[in-house]
User: Fold this.
Amino acid sequence: MSDRKGAVTMKGNPLTLTGSEVEVGKNAPDCTVVANDLSEVQLSSFKGKKCLLLTVPSLDTGVCHKETKQFNEEAGRLGDQVQILTVSMDLPFAQKRWCAAEGVSNLRTVSDYKHLEMGNNFGVLIKELKLLARAVFVIDSKGKVQYIQIVKEVTSEPDYQAALDAVKKAT
Assistant:
């Protein structure tokens, strides 16, 4: 694991990302996250499907809210061979409540609060805040990373179209 000082900013202030960087063309690292019912979920359990993996600081912020709602809308158009996961450090109870209040049902929210494996294994853990950076990863059905966007300014939205195009191109 390594620290990457200034890898992202929040409102212009530099922050450090810690963890292992992933690379396009390499196997996605496995990790354990916690579902809204407190069960543990392995990223590898989605092998065989394309996976659009989103990491966000918190669903309770405006940009994360908007991003998750946008990808929830897109999920219906992508078909059942694509799994969208939004990962944050929010507690599973809060994620479940947020999804119910916002009508988000086409994607899964999962939490990295317990093991920090998503943050560490994908290199998106913000050291100073113990939150996940805003990032998008596309993993193909064989478990290989096909696309990565780590959003430089955490308060900015990702490139939705580039992510959707990458999902459509992945095998």
Remarks:
- The domain at 2-169 is CATH 3.40.30.10 (Glutaredoxin).
